[in-house]
Amino acid sequence: MSEQTLRVGMIGYAFMGAAHSQGWRNAPRFFDLPRRIELTAVAGRNAEAVTAAAEQYGFAATETDWRALIERDDIDLVDICTPGNLHAEIALAALRSGKHVLCEKPLANTVEEAEEMAAAAREAAARGVFAMCGYSYRRTPALAYAKQLIDEGRIGTIRHVRGQYLQDWLHDADAPMTWRLDRTASGSGALGDIGAHLIDTTQWLTGQSISGVSALLETFVTSRPLAGERSGLGGHGDTSEGAPRGEVTVDDAALFTARFDGGAVGSFEASRFALGHKNAFRVEVNGTDGSVAFDFEDNNVLQFFDGRDPAGQQGFRRILVTEPEHPYVAAWWPPGHGIGYEHGFTHQVVDLVTALAEHRQPTPSFDDALQVQRVLAAVETSAGDASAWTGV
Ligand code: SOE
Fold first, then answer.
1. Interval 214-244: pLDDT, tens
2. CA distance 57 to 164
3. Which of 53, 160, 162, 270 has the greatest number of C-beta atoms within 10 Å?
4. How far, in Å, is the centroid of ligand 1 from the Cα of 274?
5. Amino acid 388: pLDDT
6. Quick check: keyword rRNA-binding in the entry (predicted)?
7. Can you give the residue ranges of every domain in the chain?
8. Strand order across the beta sheet in which 265-271 lies
9. Which of 103, 194, 251, 376 most suits a substitution to test ligand 1, by most atoms within 8 Å of the C-beta?
10. pTM (predicted TM-score)
11. Quick check: 3 pLDDT over 90?
């Protein structure tokens, strides 16, 4: 990294590429960053599409081979926004060539890949080259404020963790078959795509790691019309006679209970079939002295129950997390004006660039993300173990 500028190369330009690049563009406009950001190049296989993406997102150049992007000597950080099957290969190559890495979640498609990535990141960190995984919900102000309250001891010893991530973009049985439904590209389904957020966020919030799980996975619809080039969420595929179809090889829904190593117990549900819920990322933590509850569909709000309030005045307080003293908020709008989904990605850039400028490890590290990956694998193992199922 030059002393003043961080030169970014992004690989992949679909939904996450759009979200990340707006983060890179907006962070220096609203926050006082220790480095100037330069959007140097974006890579994607389709020359026409990657050129259009570069223009739309503000990258100066394009590459049609990600290896060429990594070999460039005018890039300091590689931002990986591809499907999961490419994360390991790209991250390893980027770290080897001395580039910092931001990698979208989940870190990898398997624990073995994640282990290799975490080992490479540890080795790179010793050379002053850092890697971070993009669990961006940590940077939602209401959740960051919940973390602050928990760390201050406001809810006491944690007993219960409750997580739900509910979407409905697959409820139509003829919604098209995109890479997210193909295990070789995505690693798993609702479990890794959205359940991983629950795992990361609750481990981070509580400061405890999940040490064991009992799980079930379900695939409701096993064949869907092929999507062609499409990679987005939802829609209705081509069901005309003879139109090509593909086999869904991932879970549509994942449910599990968990034990945390600090004594808490948790219950989790991730689904893309929860009709009516678009992006209901919900987390509740109950402690001996209080509780916090969050729902992304009301993302500027944190519910806080203070068990130390006089009994007659107790109740969940709806805190509008839009005051300048709340995490990240001072950079944005006047109280009550609120922020949205994209801001998590902007805050992610702020925290990443700040850590890099201070030559310290940004979080979540690849080791943190490896722990999430181990939980994902444990859920699959548990769900596949028929002997652990008690029939009625
Ligand atoms: C699709 O389910 C998705 O875009 C996830 O891949 C993201 O991680 C999440 O933030 C929103 O939903």
1. 999 999 999 999 987 666 788 898 889 889 9
2. 32
3. 270
4. 14
5. 86
6. no
7. 5-137+361-366, 141-298+300-339
8. 210-218, 253-260, 265-271, 158-166, 280-287, 290-295, 301-306, 317-320
9. 194
10. 0.97
11. no
DSSP string, 62-111: EESSHHHHHH-TT-SEEEE-S-GGGHHHHHHHHHHTT-EEEEESSS-SSH
Which residue has the CA at smallest separation from atom 12 of ligand 1? 194
Q: What's the chain's average pLDDT? A: 96
Fold (CATH) for 141-298+300-339: Dihydrodipicolinate Reductase; domain 2 (3.30.360)
Q: What would the CATH number be for the domain defined by 5-137+361-366?
A: 3.40.50.720
Ligand 1 atom having least distance to the Cα of 190: 2
**Same fold for the domain at 5-137+361-366 and the one at 141-298+300-339?**
no
Residue nearest to atom 1 of ligand 1 (CA): 193
- In angstroms, what is the span from residue 194 Cα to ligand 1's centroid? 6
Q: Say if the ipTM goes beyond 0.90.
A: yes
Q: Alpha carbon of 221 to those of 177, 225, 248, 250: distances in Å?
A: 10, 11, 7, 10
Rounded to 5°, the CA angle 51-53-54 comes to 65
Is the C-beta atom of 367 inside 6 A of ligand 1?
A: no
147 Cα to the center of ligand 1, angstroms:
22
C-beta 167 within 6 A of ligand 1? yes
18 lines ligand 1 (CB under 6 A): no
Q: Is the minimum distance from the CB of 194 to ligand 1 under 6 angstroms? A: yes
233 lines ligand 1 (CB under 6 A): yes
- 287-327 pLDDT, tens digit each: 999 999 999 999 999 999 999 999 999 999 999 999 999 99
**Ligand 1 atom closest to the CA of 341, numbered from 1:** 10
